[in-house]
UniProtKB/TrEMBL annotation:
<dbReference type="GO" id="GO:0005085">
    <property type="term" value="F:guanyl-nucleotide exchange factor activity"/>
</dbReference>
<dbReference type="InterPro" id="IPR036028">
    <property type="entry name" value="SH3-like_dom_sf"/>
</dbReference>
<dbReference type="GO" id="GO:0005737">
    <property type="term" value="C:cytoplasm"/>
</dbReference>
<feature type="domain" description="SH3">
    <location>
        <begin position="48"/>
        <end position="107"/>
    </location>
</feature>
<keyword id="KW-0728">SH3 domain</keyword>
<dbReference type="Pfam" id="PF14604">
    <property type="entry name" value="SH3_9"/>
</dbReference>
<keyword id="KW-0344">Guanine-nucleotide releasing factor</keyword>
<keyword id="KW-0963">Cytoplasm</keyword>
<dbReference type="InterPro" id="IPR001452">
    <property type="entry name" value="SH3_domain"/>
</dbReference>
<dbReference type="InterPro" id="IPR035899">
    <property type="entry name" value="DBL_dom_sf"/>
</dbReference>
<protein>
    <recommendedName>
        <fullName>SH3 domain-containing protein</fullName>
    </recommendedName>
</protein>
């Protein structure tokens, strides 16, 4: 026998005040549960937020399953499960594309605000897009960090080239000045 049945069999209500107290307590708990549920729903909506990437280079392909785009195109990324190939949408076209050809936009919320919702609604209703996996946030962070590291390496390489050129210029300049004296 469960606790509720025991309570009903062994106890008697002393009056309406006990009943109203229990109802008030239940209403408070119900409100608390609804509040917690709405907060969780808000978190779920945040998890399902759209992710956008900007094309760094043109991607031209003959493969029907791949997404063709030009540099600076804005791509809605819907699947990042594979680190090398992502699935995305541009207007009415969708397909796979190399992750190395794009960079994740930093301010995703601003992009969502800028997009016309009447345009985005039919895309979100697409049955193909319903099977979309949730963005792998760790993979996105890893890609952004790798992009920053690669950019820094290129910068250091260019600085070394500048230092090398300047050093050789100074050596030639002083050698030339020595011969002139």
């Amino acid at each position: 026998m469960d606790n509720l049945s025991k309570h009903n069999d062994n106890d008697s209500l002393s009056g309406d005040s006990d009943l109203s107290f229990d109802q008030t307590s239940l209403q408070g708990k119900s409100l608390s549960v609804r509040s917690s549920t709405s907060q969780l729903t808000g978190l779920d909506e945040y998890e399902d937020a759209l992710t956008y990437a900007e094309a760094l280079w043109d991607h031209i392909t003959m493969d029907q399953e791949e997404l063709v785009f030009r540099a600076q195109d804005l791509i809605e990324v819907v699947d990042m499960a594979d680190k090398d190939w992502w699935y995305g949408v541009i207007e009415d076209r969708e397909g796979w594309f190399p992750a190395a050809f794009v960079r994740i936009r930093v301010n995703q919320i601003q992009i969502e605000d800028d997009i016309d919702t009447s345009f985005a609604a039919p895309l979100l209703a697409s049955p193909k897009l319903r099977r979309i996996s949730i963005m792998n946030k760790d993979q996105a962070r890893t890609n952004v960090v790798n992009e920053i590291i690669n950019a820094e390496r290129e910068y250091v390489k260019h600085l070394k080239d500048v230092v090398e050129v300047m050093s050789s210029f100074h050596v030639h300049f002083f050698l030339h000045m020595g011969h002139a004296l």
